[in-house]
Amino acid sequence: MKKSIIVTGGAGFIGSHVVRLLVNKYPDTRIVNVDALTYAGNLENLSDVDSADNYAFRKVDIRDAAAVDALFAEIQPEGVIHLAAESHVDRSITDPLAFIMTNIVGTVNMLNGARKAWDGDYEGKRFYHVSTDEVYGSLGETGLFTEETSYDPRSPYSASKASSDHLVRAYFHTYGMPVVISNCSNNYGPNHFPEKLIPLVINNIKHGKPLPIYGDGKYTRDWLWVIDHAEAIDVIFQTGVAGETYNIGGNNEMKNIDLVEQLCDVMDELLGNELGASRKLITFVKDRPGHDRRYAIDSSKLQRELGWEPKVYPKEGLKMTAEWYLNNEKWLENVTSGAYANYYEKQYA
Ligand code: NAD
Ligand code: TYD
User: Fold this and answer.
1) pLDDT (mean) for 56-79
2) Is 245 exposed, middle or buried (0-12, 13-18, 19+ CB in 10 A)?
3) Shortest-distance Cα residue to atom 1 of ligand 1
């Protein structure tokens, strides 16, 4: 192999799509998936690429600095694409410290690992930190987040991601490490863990369970097809300018209630139900504390400077997502058995 790239969080939702894309696209590059396999990590997500010659897996918890240092010493990577994180806002409200440890301390461990391994020789090196639009806070009825929008995180999750973004930039300014950051909107698609809205709704419709909508349901998110995100990550990793930040979005704002109603109709069609049957399951429930009203992204910098744009829109993407879950019942059963049932009971009690 000509070079090695570490992808952290490669067994998770977005990371698995990134690993698949890189393994297939760059056969001469060793792609090392580094993941602690928490409840959100699942090596089944990569069963179609895990026997490729250029794929390797290392089970490492990024909270463990010594293990991270040993990883860098062994792999000697040219690049890092850092996705490993605790990623669910509701869990961050119940257990903020877990988010501080993985998202902040874990990111610093990764930065330190890279710094020691590269030892000031940054030629051909790159540390790419994958972040979220949630660091910018909440928008009113109008406006978009740009790369210049001030940070205003409002949940323990977004505060931990914001903190990690600041640290990554500090390593650029202080040590000259060639970093790049992207802040992306809400992703959807195959392999999404069913604690998040879209797969949770699909799973509940399958089981005839209520579809919990927080508050008035008029909270707005910008939805991006996960493979479009993976392609953006590839473009930014290859061609982004060191020290720069790129916003990634789907140009696809939807209110939660409209999204869920559209998904209900897609499910009715696929399941052969009478149209409207699934909408009857919609149930308004207690709001999420500190719930951000609206996120919307201006990704024109990425489109203009690096030539990326989203290809899949929800009309098509929601159907492909629903079909994937219906065709992968075993995957869904595996991830919703055991601990998921306990989580669900507590969260929606
Ligand atoms: P995910 O929860 O599906 O996956 C996270 C992965 O990280 C899992 O495989 C998990 O095992 C691993 N992980 C967690 N803690 C770890 C630790 N201590 N050590 C090593 N591995 C650990 O998350 P996702 O939705 O795929 O998000 C990936 C990244 O993208 C995150 O950094 C997230 O903040 C960011 N992001 C997500 C979205 C989204 O809509 N899901 C949007 C923008 C940005
Ligand atoms: P989620 O998928 O958790 O992503 P995020 O909070 O990171 O945007 O939630 C998407 C939106 O859906 C958010 O406004 C919260 C809302 N939501 C519900 O209304 N009900 C639910 O059961 C969940 C999980 C989310």
Assistant:
1) 98
2) buried
3) 12
